[in-house]
Design brief:
It is a single chain. This protein is α+β, with helices and mostly antiparallel strands and 190 residues long. The protein has a single domain, classed as Aminopeptidase (3-Layer(aba) Sandwich), CATH 3.40.630. Helix content is 25%, strand content 36%. The protein has a nine-stranded mixed sheet with strand order 1-2-3-4-5-6-7-9-8, sandwiched between helices. Strand 1 and strand 2 form a beta hairpin. The radius of gyration is 16 Å and the shape is globular.
């Protein structure tokens, strides 16, 4: 069960606990960076490998500060009991007129919080936030062997638009990626 609690905020109740989704602020930089480092270590499906991500929160804090009022945004899912950031979704929008309507999505959920619907709720909140910011399309890439994520995106209305053959190297092996996109409701003429 989910309830809207203002723009891009969702409170969800599950047997495993309560979490809240909201737009990230510069004050969230330390907790968000800690989650990103956990994700890099937990998942072979993140783009960055352990140790490649910025170590200090200053750069992330500055990026979150610069987003204020712009089209790009980050959402976080916080465990309401511990206050720990357990999920994250970023939408990056290029600052050029021809691409300003489209946002590129990156998402991750802490392995300890998987299976609680956080990914699904982050995507839904991102769609609402993106529409409110005038975006018409969301897009992403996903490794073709990340079946859990591919299923999440397909259930969320994303479509495979192409394959990026041998796009990445993971542990020395070439990995294909799906390029997926979704037109936001009401933005495609329907």
């Amino acid at each position: 069960m989910a309830r809207a609690a203002g723009r891009a905020a969702v409170g969800s109740w599950h047997a495993l606990g309560v979490y809240r989704i909201r737009v990230a602020s510069p004050d969230d930089a330390i907790g968000l960076l800690a989650l990103q480092h956990r994700l890099d270590s937990q998942s072979p499906f993140m783009l960055l490998e352990p140790g490649e991500r910025e170590q200090a929160p200053d750069q992330l804090r500055a990026r979150l500060q610069a987003q204020g009022g712009g089209a790009s945004f980050d959402l976080i899912a916080e465990d309401e009991q511990s206050g720990r950031v357990v999920g994250w979704l970023s939408v990056e929008v290029l600052p050029v007129r021809r691409a300003r309507h489209s946002g590129y999505v990156v998402i991750g959920v802490d392995a300890a919080a998987a299976g609680r619907g956080i990914g699904r709720d982050l995507l839904a909140a991102a769609e609402r936030e993106a529409s409110g910011r005038g975006l018409r399309r969301l897009e992403l890439t996903v490794m073709t062997d990340n079946l859990r994520a591919v299923g999440l995106y397909l259930r969320g209305g994303f479509r495979v638009e192409g394959v990026r053959h041998r796009a990445l190297l993971r542990d020395g092996a070439a990995i294909d990626e799906y390029y997926m996109g979704k037109l936001l409701p009401g933005q495609d003429g329907t």
